[in-house]
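hey so i finally got around to running the thing on that chain from the lab meeting. sorry it took forever, my laptop kept dying and i had to restart like 3 times. anyway pasting the input first so we r on the same page abt which one it is
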Amino acid sequence: MKRPANHQTESGEIRASRGGLRALIVDDETLARQGIRMLLDQDDEIGLIEEASNGKRAAKFMLTGGFDLIFLDVQMPEMDGMAALRRAGAECSGAVIFVTAYDEYAVEAFEVNAADYLLKPFTPQRFRQALQRAKDRIHNGARGSDARALAVLERIASQPKYLNRIAVRGVAGTSFVDTKDVDWLKAAENYVELHVGTECYLVEVTMAEIARQLDRACFVRIHRSVIVNAERIRNVQSASHSEYLVTLSNGIQLRSGRTYRETMQRLISNPF
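ok and heres what got predicted. didnt touch it at all, straight out
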């Protein structure tokens, strides 16, 4: 179908537009935006499609664009998706579909009455389902569709907020590391190193934030800069000054901090 007008994407590419629903795609990853655009291009009801690669640009679009559909990533540089949504405020009247690799934002999505919550990676079928829910809300104010979407959000929001996997950005795009595969973590200024076998990944997050989102039954913080997967611990030896030497199954040795003496004592004690 030929589109009668043109607009420019963040990459500078000129795209044609057509009449119909106006959609905004917000994601800091180019491939993620392209993937959503490809799926939207298959729907004849979709007209103008704009893209934003950061929260500030997204907020500007939402304040002035009058979009019917907004596909919103949460974790982005400069300003996250939630902050962009708050800045737009009442001016943002479109149906919002959250698109994120993390489930911990479901509570906030529930609070802002999101049309749906897509967890990456998602299938084309799941995308079409979310899109249809949003279109039902736009066209009909369909409460049945909204009720199903809110039920999904409520179920996600009620689950324990532990990370099941961690998104890792690289030159080839974003890959995902299952938390159960992480041997240990180390603070590195404003980043955290994920040690997975012989691989080391760098994630832009503070140690305090990632510690809060890890299952404490599985991960133990033994030092202000070190968290270990308890299942990987092979041996613990007493060291000097209330410290302990922790040996992992792969032979890596880590030293606990003095202030974590009680944590280490609980770790090496039987539960009975």
